[in-house]
Amino acid sequence: MNNSNQTLTIKEQLQACRSKEETFKTLVTLSKILQRLSSEEKTDENKVKGCESAVWLIVEESNGIRHFNADSDAKLMRGVLVAILSLVEGKAAKDIQQMNLKVELAELNLSSYLTSSRTNGVLAILSQLQQP
């Protein structure tokens, strides 16, 4: 992922979608930019608990700045991960902890894709992103 300049374009792309189908196509396109994790990285330790689909999240910190790698067995979820990670990639841990990620996520127009079971998984991802 590691390109924080994508934040605006991803947000703008999703906000420009005028239908559920358009949002779906955008998420599938976005899913292709998420670098796949190796089987060695897909460990129970990296697995996000509470997700309907299998989701793995790796957080690395360098000089106080966080970088994220994630993957899912579901293409749509990979697109959602790209959108979520675009909000936090390359930011300091304390800045991420102070963000209202639920509000930020709501601005990405993903609500039609976040069924109640998927929402629980997304909330688990947001929670993990904001851990100290």
Can you tell me about this structure?
- The longest helix is centred in the middle third of the chain and has 14 residues, at 75-88.
- This protein has 132 residues and is α+β, with helices and mostly antiparallel strands.
- Helix content is 48%, strand content 12%.
- Helix 1 packs across helix 3 and helix 2 (20-31) crosses helix 3 (75-88).
- The chain has one domain (6-129): Alpha-Beta Complex (Sufe protein. Chain: A), CATH 3.90.1010.10.
- It contains six helices and two strands, in the order ααββαααα.
- The radius of gyration is 14 Å and the shape is globular.
- A two-stranded antiparallel sheet has the order 1-2.
- 29% of the residues are buried.
- The protein has helices at residues 6-16, 20-31, 75-88, 93-98, 101-106, 116-129; strands at residues 55-62, 65-72.
